[in-house]
Amino acid sequence: MAAAAGPTVPPRVSRRRLLSRERPPRARPGRALARAAPPSQRPAAAVTDRDELGAAAPPALPLLTAAPCPAMLSRLVLRAAPAALRALPPPVAVGVLHTTRPLHTTRQSLAPVPPLPEKGGEVRHGLIPEEFFQFLYPKTGVTGPYMLGTGLLLYLLSKEIYVVNHETAAAACILTVIVYAIKKFGPQVAAFADKLNEEKMASALAMKNDTIQSLQTAIEEEKKEQWRAEGHNYLFDAKRNNIAMLLEANYRERLLTVYSEVKKRLDYQVALQNLKRQKEQDHMIQWVEKNVVQSITPQQQKESIAKCILDLKALSKSAHATVRAA
């Protein structure tokens, strides 16, 4: 029975455990010292399922680990990716570098964000940016990008990272329908979207112009109000002058009234004194005349009358002589 039996078949190990065995151990001091000793001398906590897996694995398995594993290649690619992405032109690096930065671990930058381009850059095959080809041309030549894509596709298929099944056929059909729809209805949809965008831009521009016009009108009104406010000073000055002139006119009217009243009283006193003097003179004249008349005798009256008659006759003779001489 034992001789008839063929060679023993090693137990099958899953692909995930095989890859986990091929990963390099992390640099941890405690476990590194514990694993430096053989499994028999390690403490019970240091013996892990990897040691059990190594003990249960067949002798031929270490030969498989000599080839470069996909996990190691992927780690090398991820480590070299930031430096390669930083060497890309700005249109590519701006959209790609932020994926390699750790999230919520850096300080917030207050630098201004560069404006986004209004139109996208040139692409090939409707998907791949032109900068990617220009980046690979100096290093790989013209066929380098295509060989890279072909090699990557063959690598995924050969390593069964991507398995071709019915979903692949469905994805190809869906992609074909999407490409046909884009080629067929893309220009109409783009024109319709551009029309909507133009309408939105026109409405936004009209709203902006209306707002600017209203603000300019408000500014002009504000300037007018400021000019009017400046004119209030002149108005107040004119009102102050008017009030001062009214007060001066009232003062002068009162002065004139006082002058008139004082002049009336003085004129009254002057008229009173003049009247008194005139009465005194009239009384004096009447008294003198009366006394003179009373002092004249009848004989003196006759002599004065005769004297007057003689004077008149002398005057008449002199007058006739003058007339004749002429």
Q: What features would you describe in this structure?
A:
It is a single chain. With 326 residues, the protein is an all-alpha fold. Helix content is 72%, strand content 1%. It contains 10 helices and 2 strands. The chain has helices at 15-22, 29-36, 49-56, 61-64, 70-86, 90-96, 130-140, 144-158, 166-295, 298-325; strands spanning 123-124, 128-129. The chain has a two-stranded antiparallel ribbon. Strand 1 and strand 2 (128-129) form a beta hairpin. The chain is rod-shaped and about 195 Å long. The N and C termini lie far apart (219 Å). Mean pLDDT is 75; it is low at 1-11, 27-71 and 91-104.
Task: Write a concise synopsis of the structure shown.
With 326 residues, the chain is an all-alpha fold. Helix content is 72%, strand content 1%.
Q: Count all strands and give the number.
A: 2
How large is the radius of gyration?
69 Å
Instruction: Report, as a whole number of angstroms, the end-to-end distance.
Output: 219 Å
Which H/E pattern describes the elements?
HHHHHHEEHHHH
- The level of helicity is over 70%
| Overall pLDDT score | 75
User: Which strand order spans the largest sheet, edge to edge or round the barrel?
Assistant: 1-2
Shape: rod-shaped
Strand content: under 5%
